[in-house]
Design brief:
elongated; 5-stranded mixed beta sheet; 3-stranded antiparallel beta sheet; Immunoglobulin-like; about 0% helix; about 140 residues; mainly beta
């Protein structure tokens, strides 16, 4: 996972603009998360669910106001990969994901983490953290 200003997936590759930052603000800015997943050989051709959630420095989900009321700040989707022809048996298959967001109403002078879960499973290394500058 990589924080960036913008990201796009084309032909299975990630295109990243302004990638690799960990401090933003103090004013809300558009941002993106670029994700590359290696899908194990035995999990190819299966439908997988992913979720990226924003967590505050105390480990609590970040809640934002929406027209439907308060909601945890998360993004979800599904993916399925197929084996490319000629790939050696046992090789992982890449899946790339670009999540672009508008400016987020985050508190200044705080630390946040985006955390990834796939099929309800997560790992401490499946996250990317950033700080917001004080006003």
């Amino acid at each position: 996972m990589l924080l960036c200003d913008a990201a796009q997936v084309a032909d299975g590759k990630l295109y990243i603009l302004g990638g690799g930052w960990s401090v933003t603000g103090p004013m809300p800015m558009p941002s993106a998360i670029a994700v590359k997943v290696e899908v194990d050989w035995h999990e190819v051709d299966q439908l997988h669910e992913w979720e990226v959630s924003l967590i505050d420095e105390d480990g609590h989900p970040v809640v934002i106001e929406t027209p439907e009321g308060p909601h945890d700040l998360d993004v979800r989707g599904e993916f399925q990969v197929t084996r490319p022809e000629g790939l050696p048996a046992g090789s992982p298959v890449d899946f790339s994901l670009a999540i672009n967001m508008g400016p987020l109403p985050l508190e200044n002078g705080k630390r946040y983490s985006w955390r990834l879960a796939i099929d309800g499973q997560s790992d401490a290394s499946w996250s990317v953290a950033f700080s917001t500058r004080p006003m």
